[in-house]
Amino acid sequence: MIFKNFLNIKKSKTVKKDFLRLLKDQPILFETLKPTYKYSYSKKIIKKYKKFSNLRIIGMGGSVLGSEAIYNFLKPKIKKKITFVSNLNSNADYFDNKNINLNLIISKSGNTLETIANANTLIDKKEKNIIVTDAKNSYLTNLASKLKAEIFEHKNYVGGRYSVLSEVGMLPAELMNLNERKFKQFNNLIKNKNFINNLVNNVSTTLSLIKSGKQTSIILNYDEQSENLFKWYQQLIAESLGKKSLGLLPVVSSMPKDNHSLMQLYLDGPNKYFYTFFNVLENRNIKIKNDGVLNTHKFLKNLSIEKIKQSQMIATEKVFISKKIPFRSFRILKRNEQSLGELFCFFILETILLGRALNVNPFDQPSVELIKIETKKILI
After folding, report:
1. Transmembrane stretches, by residue range (predicted)?
2. What is the average per-residue pLDDT within 283-307?
3. What's the structural domain count of the chain?
């Protein structure tokens, strides 16, 4: 494991039996977490697309959040420009980008309204196109035929928010020239006692907090490049657990910026929340320029930005401990495919275990379908 996890919360009964049962009766989607998973695309076929340097990825929700998290988290390693189209926004800058040479369009159903609208607004005839979809006869399969686009199957047993380590996330990762095999840490992690203990303790603790009335989970994110990772996490938690009047509301706070806006509420407001501190330990050594530092603040001389940020995080944790505010803390030791793959596995397993313990189905989202039906009625 290349991340550290700390809990300041008293642990309740563990859910280790549930975890062992989950490993025994593995949902078929677990295949996507393993290095032996068979992708629907051929590495030989996609090799010709790796030469393109200006890509556009079009999708909604789980079809795009995972690849956006990968790009954002590992951006220092990626030498390509990737534009993500993941909402309806007629004022977005991506309408002005005329240099796109490859589109990747992803929708499990092949009929996602926003994806269809964006694809038909943005795609130019001169661009190459790849479409990933499950449906055999859908809008996107028909569009693929019209565009003479490459088409790859989105496995029907993989829900969007759990699809990051399938074609949905790994095809974009390969087009970014990342090593997809390094993301696949599942087989190693389930043999790692520290990982299992961390996972079980986090799940049991979260359950006890939910039962005590704390149903808002606030992520104090000290790593700007993880912003999209937590957008992915928000969907995973909210859409998987928000059923039967249960669930967790995941809120992401940008730190240390939010010390100057929201922290007062976190420290002295309603006692209804629990927290996750998150940071990546960077090697970047950007230091303050000593020449401009006044004597009143000479303690800042020779300090790096990362040292100041890390000190603020530690200080905030100490205040939380003194105020008996429940939190857990993640320190990511390296920024690479392996550490991100470990985080994907951890949060996916944690979510499924929480769903089982809360007696909700973590794999569906029935109420969202109602909005799709009503929207279509209005437009027709």
Report:
1. 53-74
2. 81
3. 2
